[in-house]
TrEMBL record:
Keyword annotations of the record: Endosome
Places the protein is found: Recycling endosome
UniProt source species: Saguinus oedipus
C2 domain ranges (all copies): 1-124
Protein name: C2 domain-containing protein
Keyword match Signal: no
Superkingdom of the organism of origin: Eukaryota
Flavoprotein in keyword set: no
Length: 124
């Protein structure tokens, strides 16, 4: 965490997180894209320009399990910079042996909203 002076709030200081740790546990309800009603699924997590790809969960039946962690450096969450830089994107794909990988699903998390939500535990 870093300590930054709060603009317009006098001499007060505000703690601002500098990194976010993401744990990808599993996905549910994915459509099968592979033979036999299964998928070879993997997840790509992106924050700003940083990306992390999980391992491939082979022959999963719509609910792949990864249990993998990644840490990303955060843009300043209190600034009014581009919103895309403060978004965590998680995309799940099916690994295709031939051709392009197939899209299975996507989720986005607004990190600024999480930072403003003071009632939420920071580990959620």
């Amino acid at each position: 965490m870093s300590l930054t002076a709060s603009a317009g709030r006098g001499l007060g200081a505000v703690w601002s997180p500098t990194h976010v740790q993401v744990t990808v546990l599993q996905a549910r309800g994915l459509r099968a894209k592979g033979p036999g009603g299964t998928s070879d699924a993997y997840a790509v997590i992106q924050v700003g320009k940083e990306k992390y790809a999980t391992s491939v969960s082979e022959r999963s039946l719509g609910a792949p399990v990864w249990r993998e962690e990644a840490t990303f450096e955060l843009p300043p969450l209190l600034s009014s910079g581009p919103a895309a830089a403060a978004t965590l994107q998680l995309t799940v794909l099916h690994r295709a042996l031939l051709g392009l990988d197939k899209f299975l699903g996507r989720a986005e998390v607004d990190l600024r909203e999480l930072h403003r939500d003071q009632g939420r535990r920071k580990t959620q």
